[in-house]
Amino acid sequence: MKPPKVESEEFYGIKILKNGTWLYGGTPINRHNLVKLFATVLKRDEKGDFWLETPYEKGRIEVEDAPFIAVELTVESSGKDQRLNFRTNLDDWVTAGVEHPIRVEFDAATLEPSPYIMVHRGLEARINRAVYYQLAEMAVEHGQEKGLYGIWSQNQFYPLGKIT
What pLDDT, on a 0 to 100 scale, did the predictor assign at position 4? Predict the structure, then answer.
């Protein structure tokens, strides 16, 4: 007989910092493979809370921004058909497209961009500054809207910002 799932409203003491560092009890988890294992059971609910969930246990964790960071970009082909491939800090690769859209939020006060790409199961990676600058260098004006610049991947246009 399978034991019942234990669901805890308490935090597990795990926190993911904005820079992608995973902490347990305030101390960095330095074992990359352990962090990768935790990431395989990471979920986000409809309220935006983050959980580590196994078949037997579920507990909440804290995430400052996004649970992953996009740290590398490779580009295949060019034009609207190009493929933008992103590597996360946990060595997962995703290609921007319908299943992995890119979005950019702008801080209301500073207008600083915060770009993200969907990785899986509703979990995003924040695109780091160096990779965002690579995207900005590749940006083209959208033919339909004057002043709107962005990038193409797998025939999908992703706005990066507007120049007026």
Answer: 62
Q: Given the structure tokens 């600058």, which residue do they identify?
A: 133
Cβ-contact 119, 104 below 8 angstroms: no
Distance separating alpha carbons of residues 77 and 42, to the nearest angstrom: 33
Q: What are phi and psi of 46, to 5 degrees?
A: -65, -20
Element housing 35 (H / E): helix 32-40
- Strand bridging mode 102-106 / 93-95: unpaired
The DSSP H or E segment spanning 23 is strand 22-24
Best CA proximity match to 53, nearest among 88, 17, 6: 6
Phi, psi of 156 (to 5 degrees): -115, 135
Reported as a single tens digit per residue, the pLDDT across 62-112 is 999 999 999 999 999 999 999 999 999 999 999 999 999 999 999 999 989
- Name the burial class of residue 89, with classes exposed (0-12), middle (13-18) and buried (19+) by CB atoms within 10 angstroms of its CB: buried
| CB-facing half-sphere around the CA of 67: CA atoms within 13 A | 27
Within a 10 A sphere around the Cβ of 73, how many other Cβ atoms?
19
* Helical (H) or strand (E) element with 125: strand 123-127
| 0.70 exceeded by pTM | yes
